[in-house]
Every structure is written in C-alpha cells, then in structure tokens.
Diacylglycerol kinase family lipid kinase (Hymenobacter oligotrophus), 300 residues
Amino acid sequence: MTPDCRRLCFIFNPISGTNRRFDLPGLLSRQLGNTPGLYYEVQPTHYAGHAEELARTAAANGFGVVVAVGGDGTVNEVGRGLLGTGVAMGVLPRGSGNGLARHLGIPLGMAAAVSLLRQPRVLPIDVGRLNGKPFFCTAGLGFDAHVSRCFAAAGTRGLATYVRVALREYGRYRATPVQIEVNGQLLRTTCYVLAFANAAQYGNNAYIAPLANIRDGLLDMCLIDEMPLSRALRVAYGLAAGDLPTSGAAAYHTTHTVRVRSEQPLGFHLDGDFAGEATDVSVALEPQALPVVVGHSFTQ
Ligand SMILES: Nc1ncnc2c1ncn2[C@@H]1O[C@H](COP(=O)(O)OP(=O)(O)OP(=O)(O)O)[C@@H](O)[C@H]1O
C-alpha cells in the first residue's frame, strides 16, 4: 500500500536547538489547520532514543510522513525508525546544526518548512551504516567524535558551545595510528579526522565534503591525518568556504565500503552524536533506502 502523505506525524524533540519558547502546536495550526483532507498529530520525545520508537509506531499506524522536529540527532532516530517501512521522513529543522535539512534544501524558517508538507515532494536518499548503525548525514572517527562526546557533556547546546569545546579539545587531542581499506587500497596512516559524508555538510554550512551527492550510492570519505595549527586554520577556512577538497589539507576517496582498524579504541559519531568506540569499524552504504521530503531548491 502506498503511504498516505495526507497523514503526518510530528515527532518533536523539546531539548534540540536553543529556542525554548517554540510553539509547535500553534505553528501547525496556523500553517496546516485549514488544509482540507490533511490530518496530523504531534508526539513529543521524553528521552534519548524515544524518537525511533515513536517513528516506528507512527509508520505501523498508517502515517505516510513522519516529521523529525529537531536537529540531526532527532533526524537520525526518526530515520532509523522508518527504515524498511516505505514511510517518508520530513524534517522541521530546529537543531543547532541542521546538516541534513540544509543539504535537502529545507528552509530553516519554520513556517516555510511546514508549508512544504502540504504537498510534499518525496525522493529516496542513500543511508550509511557504521558497524551496522544507520546515519543519514555524516559519521566519523577521531576528533569529531571526541568533540561530540565532550559536547554532550557540556550542559549547554548550540554553535557557541560546540566551538568552545572544539577549541579547548584541539590542544589535547592526538591522532591515532590506523589501517584503512578503501577501494582495494590499504592505507597505513594516522587519523585525526576520518569523516564519512553522505551529505555535504556537518551542519551550520560547514562543508566537510562539498561535492557529496546524497542519492548517488557513494560516500565521500575525508581523511585528515594530522592537525598542526597551520592546517587547522586551513581546514576551518575550507569548511566555511567549501573548498576543503582542493586545499591540500585533506585527502578524499569516493567509495561505498570502508574498513578501519586501530590498536587503540576509536570513538565514532553518527550524525553528530557520539555513539561508541571500536577498534574495527566497517562503513557501508545502502543506496536510496529512505524516502524523504525535499525542498524546492534540491536538485540531486
Ligand atoms: N526528551 C529528551 N530528553 C533528552 N534527550 C533527548 C530527548 N529527545 C531527544 N533527545 C536527544 O537529544 C539529542 C540532541 O538532539 P538533536 O541532535 O536533534 O539537537 P541538536 O544537537 O540541537 O541539533 P544538531 O544535531 O542539528 O546540532 C539527540 O541525541 C536525542 O537522542
């Protein structure tokens, strides 16, 4: 049965982002209340991981679009819950970074983002897996994962906290020796940052892989082996300018599977949330495995 895009379930993470006075029911009533034939419900999350359960239940209950209201962590949980159901994921970007929403051309203004849902345009996107765990935007090992772990413990959220934590940890973090198998090559190197990009950016228009196409069945792998200060400055500029691949500060490979081994456990993140440590990491991609609502400007 084709999912009914006139039945929408909004899964709302109240701790995402920094705006605590957000009135979702009021916004939905103004934007969707008078749309004939459209039915919606709002389900707030009560704990980390809850959005995945709520999304799975919503799909089983016949909702045709399940909308993640939050940042990339909420998107990750809702996306996990919908995998294999054929139900589309929408996004109302209310997080700190909103990497997937930005990649998909979803407006950051809430009213405009909601209005996309009146007649949603749905396309399937690729889904990455790191040791079997899904990600939709980016995953990675090394410094990024370390910062995501410290960020979760920081007590406040938002870009300012993220930058403060990253600057503090830059002086402490050391690269780890690794072996990387990619496209039939074995790279013996060190890992300061090893990013797997399904989408082009981490969020906040920080472009780790500006050429990434989220529907091409391929991941863009970005390796930064060491991070002396001169390179850190170039990387920071390259993330903002979108020219990291041509900067000489990072090496890129386009692939659909990667294996990474290290003697020391390496932390990893999934869509910006710290998700564990491992000495053996396999990354793979499932082409066009999740239908999502995209914005008018999305052309991939
Ligand atoms: N009710 C809740 N209480 C505590 N944590 C929650 C709750 N609901 C969801 N979470 C957790 O909140 C975390 C952060 O959410 P999310 O990533 O959406 O926001 P953000 O970090 O502000 O945005 P972004 O990832 O775009 O920077 C997620 O990892 C999720 O598991």
